Amino acid sequence: MNQSPDKPNTIQLGNTVIGSDNMPFIIAELSGNHDQSLDKALQMVDAAAHAGADAIKLQTYTANTMTLDVHEGDFFIDDPNNLWKGYSLHQLYQKAMTPWEWHQPLFERAQQLGMLAFSTPFDSTALDYLEELNSPCYKIASFENTDHALLAAVAKTGKPVIMSTGMATLSELAESVEVLRENGCEELILLKCTSNYPARPVDANLNTLPHLAQLFGCQVGLSDHTTGIGVAVAGAALGATVIEKHFVLDRSEGGVDADFSMEPNELRQLVEECRRAKDALGKVYYGPTEREIASRKHRRSLYIAEDLEPGDQLTENNLRSVRPGSGLPPKYLKQFLGKYIKKKINKGTPLSWEHFE
User: Fold this and answer.
1) Is the predicted pLDDT of residue 166 greater than 60, yes or no?
2) Looking at the whole model, is its pTM more than 0.90?
3) What residue segments make up the domains of the chain, in order of their start?
4) Most buried among 160, 174, 294, 346, using CB within 10 Å?
5) Do 324 and 302 meet the contact criterion of CB atoms below 8 Å apart?
6) Cα gap 348→335, rounded to integer Å
7) Helix, strand, coil % (nearest 5) of the chain?
8) CATH topology of domain 2-61+97-281
9) Which tens digits make up the pLDDT trace of 317-354?
């Protein structure tokens, strides 16, 4: 993945260019929704490709690299509003982890289908393993965006970094970006993120996106944990070059993240609508578009509304502004009212200057 020389704020990965002039780059996050089945995980890759996603993303950790094997106190989830209430952190990560030996077949399946494949490392051992697999870029999760040692290690690979901003204050985020750049990260994408599952649209604060891009001089995107596609589409309209959504084959079958994950038909709709949103942004433009030119003839214009004889006076009854648009513009209506016709004119005749020669 190299920075494009003619467009410094683009990132190129194979034939894919990520940047503000390109369609949003859509990432399907597999997370732990494979339910510890490699066959199911491979089916998810197939379904994501069929839905039009540009990439799949994994998470690389073990329960022991993520937390301690303690099942009480701070390590136990007892918040009644938490999606994973009743689990200890160790139990949750044991259930959600993607076995490391699956990474290579999943990466290969994605590549065969024309998609990118990469992962989120959660510690140095995961990063070392992903380097062996030649992961093209790295994602930093929201909960790790203040882990400066991890950030430095990832940055030193020289590969592009996509980092979620969830929970980080502006000062924390500034520190993290500084660590990344001081350690060699030249290609950075920051993802606006709400680290709540599922997240409320009201907490997305998407107006932050343009400010985030300007503040840190980098591309921005959205790691979206809301349900539905509305927030992601709005993000695309506000300049998100990357959209990441969690993915599941069938929510009714469960899965650790199923409640806020998209099914294949929803992912396809997301891809299509984000592309429409990007198309719709266009440029600053006034006047008829190419396809509107033909419609101009159906605008209102001035028409004779009654049969007239020479010497008849134009009134509001016999001269009207109606569709279609072959007559003089309606702005001239007051100018002509009260004038006298010098020759016979039939009802339905578009008014023209020659009627007054």
Assistant:
1) yes
2) no
3) 2-61+97-281, 293-356
4) 160
5) no
6) 20
7) 40, 20, 45
8) TIM Barrel (3.20.20)
9) 999 999 999 999 999 999 999 999 988 999 999 999 88
